[in-house]
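Please think about what follows:
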Amino acid sequence: MSRLLLTVALAFSASLAAAEALNADEQRMADWIDAHAEDAIALLEETVNIPSGTMDTEGVRAVGRVMQRELDAVGLQTEWVDMPADMNRAGHLFGRKDGLGKKILLIGHLDTVFEADDGSKPFVRNGDIATGHGIYDMKAGNAIIVYALRALYEVGALIDIPVVVTFTGDEEKSGRPLSMSRKDLIEAGQWADIALGFEEAMTFDGMDWATVTRRSSSRWILTVEGKQSHSSNIFNDETGAGAIFEAARILNAFYDEVRGEEHLTFNAGNIQGGTEVNYDSARNRGTAFGKTNVVPRKVIVNGGIRTISQDQLDRARAAMRAIVATHHPHTSATIEFREGYPPMSPTAGNIALQQELSDINVALGRDPMPQLDPSKRGAADISFVAPYTDALAGLGGIGGGGHTPDEYLQLSSLPLAIKRAAILIYRLSKQEKTD
């Protein structure tokens, strides 16, 4: 078990009685949520039936209009934030309201992995299981945000809570530069005392798990040059090893010398090498031509890297640069690191939020929630605000098949997740600010 996954922080051995029981307002919210579970499912169905792949800007905006209607209904001031035209992204929906006490940021996203021309799948219900593109990642989470706010609104608690809701329009394929596409989200994180992310919840091994950390996700591109020559000259003093052997040396050194640190992973996603290489970085594809009797001139490798902290990322990049800087005769190489999603590190504040959520889970009749291994999740928008505020992710519904055509959701998990979110926001709003 990682030192970062601090078992002491979750107080897992505490008795079920340690969690505070629901008070009158919380019980009223829980009852209201149960009574309106089908309404939440209807909202989910409405949005799943609107195809909204990231590049379908009209579809993303259409889902945004549905969510804007819902935020307006509980008294938030809504705004659509457009992106520059050359970014080719739909923009983001923000909802805001003032209040007293701790400022809470709720994060969802409107877009899905699959575009309409991938054969968009509508909402289909079969007992407790529903399927459809985006149902799990993350239109269920969006519905949970709305109905948690509605539950707070119904008991009169929302009026006192300062809230910002952001539904980004390009989480699955973020517009570049990130400094522009995530500017408004970062500013909201700088405003907030607490950020809550509503991507899918994690439940396995018979337990619910809390997400206090998410790893970074960024790209690297390795370019290797060699001396083109007749293959009969390879390895001699005038020709050297060529670009492909040098690229293989570098990748093997990454494997031997950089790999192994806990929570650090890196992957070479594609590689082109030969005498002629053309690579389209934006589309992650390319072509290569080479003959067995020609020493190859060029190699391009496109890869990714994930880390638990910025320090780990900096160290890994430094180690990779050092390997690239030494090279065989008549070869040269460069490595370029591209911007990406930062890490959400497991801070003491995040762990305190986990304990709050765990206590609520117990009060709702379930088990305590330990910390999720960060290797079991990808990156998310909440990572952009994590450097500025306490953060907790994974507050969505329970299901599976994310980023596949077979996404599904357990519909019975929807009211559970709404209760957890509404009660968590309610309890956090009652805590005194420390600054």
User: Anything to note?
Assistant: The CA atoms of residues 72 and 78 lie 7 Å apart.
